[in-house]
C-alpha cells in the first residue's frame, strides 16, 4: 500500500537513484534536462510514493518552463520502481499532481513521452511547440488544466530564467 507525500530535500538523492534505476543510462543528457538546469522544481507538485515500510515506489517532479512567452508546467521525470509497475502507481502520481496543478492555478502542462500511455490522462500531441533538439515531435504532448489553455500557444520551449 503506497501513500503519496510531498518530496522533501531529504528525499532528493533517493528520488534521483530511483530515476537512475527506471530510465536508460545517460538520462540527464536528454534535451528536457537542459530546461531544468539551474531552475528550481515546482515543489508543491513534486510528489513521492512510499509503502508502509518506507520504501520508495515512485516519484514525479515538475519544472516551470516557457513556450514562447507563456508559462507552462513541464511534467517529469515520473517513474515507478520496476517491482511496483503496472499497479496504478504511475497513474496515481499523475492524477494527483494534475489535480493539484489545477488547485494551484496552473493552466497547461507539457511533457515528452509515450502518447499511448499519457492519452488516458487527457494528453494529446502538440503542434508548433518546439522542444530543444533532438526531440521526436510525436512525443511532445500537452494537457489543458483549463479548457482551451493550449490554443494559440506555440513556439520554442525555453528555460524560465533564460531571458526568453
Ligand atoms: C511509465 C511508468 C511511470 C508507468 O507507471 P506504472 O505505475 O507502471 O503505470 P500504471 O500502473 O499507472 O499503468 C500501467 C498501464 O500503462 C501501460 N504503460 C506503461 N508504460 C507505457 C508506455 N510507455 N506506453 C504505453 N503504455 C504504457 C501498461 O502497459 C499498463 O497498461 P494496462 O493498464 O492496459 O495494463 C512506469 O512504467 C515507469 O517508471 N517506466 C520507466 C520510466 C519511464 O518510462 N517514465 C516515463 C517517461 S515518459
Describe this structure in words.
The protein is of the alpha+beta class. Helix content is 21%, strand content 30%. It has a single domain (3-159), classed as 3-Layer(aba) Sandwich (Aminopeptidase). It has helices at 12-22, 31-34, 89-103, 115-118, and strands at 3-6, 47-50, 56-67, 70-80, 108-112, 124-125, 129-130, 140-144, 155-159. Strands 1, 2, 3, 4, 5, 6, 7, 8 and 9 form a nine-stranded mixed beta sheet that branches. The longest helix has 15 residues, at 89-103. The chain is globular and about 45 Å long. It binds coenzyme A (COA). Residues 22-23, 78-80, 85-91, 113-114, 116-117 line the site of coenzyme A. Coenzyme A is lined by residues 22-23, 78-80, 85-91, 113-114, 116-117. GO terms for molecular function: acyltransferase activity. It holds the Pfam family Acetyltransf_7.
Amino acid at each position: 500500500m503506497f501513500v503519496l507525500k510531498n518530496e522533501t530535500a531529504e528525499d532528493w538523492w533517493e528520488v534521483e537513484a530511483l530515476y537512475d534505476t527506471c530510465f536508460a543510462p545517460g538520462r540527464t543528457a536528454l534535451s528536457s534536462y537542459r530546461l531544468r538546469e539551474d531552475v528550481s522544481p515546482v515543489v508543491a507538485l513534486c510528489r513521492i510514493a512510499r509503502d508502509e515500510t518506507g520504501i520508495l515506489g515512485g516519484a514525479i517532479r515538475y519544472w516551470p518552463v516557457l513556450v514562447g512567452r507563456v508559462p507552462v508546467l513541464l511534467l517529469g521525470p515520473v517513474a515507478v520502481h520496476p517491482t511496483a509497475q503496472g499497479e496504478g502507481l504511475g497513474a496515481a502520481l499523475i492524477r494527483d499532481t494534475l489535480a493539484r496543478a489545477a488547485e494551484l492555478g496552473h493552466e497547461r502542462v507539457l511533457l515528452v513521452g509515450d502518447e499511448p500511455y499519457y492519452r488516458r490522462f487527457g494528453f494529446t500531441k502538440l503542434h508548433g511547440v518546439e522542444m530543444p533538439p533532438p526531440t521526436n515531435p510525436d512525443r511532445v504532448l500537452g494537457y489543458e488544466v483549463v479548457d482551451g489553455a493550449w490554443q494559440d500557444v506555440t513556439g520554442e520551449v525555453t528555460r524560465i530564467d533564460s531571458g526568453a
